[in-house]
Amino acid sequence: MSLSKRTIAISVAAVVGIAAVSTYGLVSSAGASQQPAAAPAATPVDVAPVVARNVAEWDEFSGRIEAVERVEVRPLVGGTVTAVHFKDGSIVKKGDPLFTIDPRPYAAEVARTQAALTAAKSRVAYTTSELDRAQKLVADNAIARREFEEKENAAREAQANLQGAAAALDAAKLNLEYTRIVAPVSGRVSRAEITVGNVVSAGGAAPVLTTLVSVSPMYVAFDADEQSYLRYSAKAAQGAKTPVYIGLANEDGYTREGAIQSVDNRLDVRSGTIRVRATLDNADGRLTPGLYARVRMSSGAPHDAILISDKAIGTDQDKKFVLVVDAANKTSYRPVVLGASIDGLRVVKSGLKAGDRIVVNGIQRVRPGDAVAPNTVTMDSLVTKRVVLPGAQPEAPATPAEAKADTPAAPTAKAEAKPANAKTAATAQRLPADRA
């Protein structure tokens, strides 16, 4: 009996011990769960203050370079080409010889008409003297009136034949002159389409011997839309001049300045555009007819504007937005209305104000309300290609301190290149959390 009581006592003690241990574990877990969770680490991103600047907005068009004068050189007389006096693609001056057609047949024609003119002159002298004698005789009634009129008519015919012979001689000399084909304008000549030894003919079906285009000045022709035409025509009516800047396909900026030369007299109703032509200097001879040209014209007076980099702009369905960083380094969603691109930066018509800081690199890794570790850079440091207009002063080189500030930190660049995981990359394509 005593053994049984002892066994029961041991069992009760064991149960109480286990219960005590369990109670201590629950209390410990509850205490641990009441401790505050650690805050998530701030995401490193590049942050830049927006740029407030006085800017002039521009309209851009696509055009083609055209020659002011273009001539297709054709023969005016037929014959055999005996000489070519230029090298293909060379620059020639007005009056320089280009081709020679065999002049011997035309020289012979000049000699023949010269002889005919001499004979006509002799005939005029003879008939004139005959008429003088007849006038004296008819006064004394020594000859019949009919005979006098015949001599008078012969003198008139001789004078007419003299004029015809002189005209034939002029035509023969002109044809002889046409055998020497010269440049009608100064410019660059093309290749010789007809070479020495070939026979050419004159007339409307005459072959093109070569082409010649003027070099300077040049035209640039482009099509302007209706709204631009109305805007610029209103400025022109007020006497304001609109500068035109031209850049070639291999140039980042606009290296040449021109002036509007003419505007077409009607709008193309099919395309809603009107043809505009500007003139520009080509002293260096680099411009060639047919080259593609980028045309830029000022669309209004300079005004104050907010500028940001395109790298900072996100897309929310049909809207554009940026992430603004506040004083506590937390991001917030901000829709913006964008304008034209100026010198590599985008005009913000509404949504931002001077002094705002926005995320410019790493926008895919953060969401509105997230804390960030900002690496401050300048907005201008994100511009890869800056538009340069003729006569613009070159920018001063950045100081070492500015260069250091413009360079993104290495950890940020590394994080930008490689997202944290696939979920983070997928999140970047979805709508921000507070906009879902």
TrEMBL record:
<protein>
    <submittedName>
        <fullName>Efflux RND transporter periplasmic adaptor subunit</fullName>
    </submittedName>
</protein>
<feature type="domain" description="Multidrug resistance protein MdtA-like beta-barrel">
    <location>
        <begin position="217"/>
        <end position="299"/>
    </location>
</feature>
<keyword id="KW-0175">Coiled coil</keyword>
<feature type="compositionally biased region" description="Low complexity">
    <location>
        <begin position="393"/>
        <end position="428"/>
    </location>
</feature>
<dbReference type="Pfam" id="PF25944">
    <property type="entry name" value="Beta-barrel_RND"/>
</dbReference>
<feature type="region of interest" description="Disordered">
    <location>
        <begin position="393"/>
        <end position="436"/>
    </location>
</feature>
<dbReference type="InterPro" id="IPR006143">
    <property type="entry name" value="RND_pump_MFP"/>
</dbReference>
<feature type="domain" description="Multidrug resistance protein MdtA-like barrel-sandwich hybrid">
    <location>
        <begin position="70"/>
        <end position="211"/>
    </location>
</feature>
<feature type="coiled-coil region">
    <location>
        <begin position="134"/>
        <end position="175"/>
    </location>
</feature>
<dbReference type="InterPro" id="IPR058624">
    <property type="entry name" value="MdtA-like_HH"/>
</dbReference>
<feature type="domain" description="Multidrug resistance protein MdtA-like alpha-helical hairpin">
    <location>
        <begin position="111"/>
        <end position="179"/>
    </location>
</feature>
<dbReference type="InterPro" id="IPR058627">
    <property type="entry name" value="MdtA-like_C"/>
</dbReference>
<dbReference type="Pfam" id="PF25917">
    <property type="entry name" value="BSH_RND"/>
</dbReference>
<dbReference type="Pfam" id="PF25876">
    <property type="entry name" value="HH_MFP_RND"/>
</dbReference>
<dbReference type="Pfam" id="PF25967">
    <property type="entry name" value="RND-MFP_C"/>
</dbReference>
<dbReference type="InterPro" id="IPR058625">
    <property type="entry name" value="MdtA-like_BSH"/>
</dbReference>
<dbReference type="InterPro" id="IPR058626">
    <property type="entry name" value="MdtA-like_b-barrel"/>
</dbReference>
<feature type="domain" description="Multidrug resistance protein MdtA-like C-terminal permuted SH3">
    <location>
        <begin position="304"/>
        <end position="365"/>
    </location>
</feature>
<comment type="similarity">
    <text>Belongs to the membrane fusion protein (MFP) (TC 8.A.1) family.</text>
</comment>
